[in-house]
Amino acid sequence: MSIDRIVMAFAGFMILLTIALGMQGSPIFHHVYWLYFTAFIGFNLLQSAFTGFCPLALILKKMGKKPGVAFN
To answer: What's the whole-model pTM score?
Structure first.
């Protein structure tokens, strides 16, 4: 799996997890402040679309994962 797909899968998983932790009707609700982390992930995805900078992509590249098209 390329770095691009790993980053998108991880971001999607973290968004779903933090929404579940931050919504009061959720069975795994913890605290509403988890929604701030959801906003941070969304902001990071937005800025990486314009700048190409993604901390997770840098970590994965150092681990030897093959680059995709977006994060070279």
So the answer is: 0.84
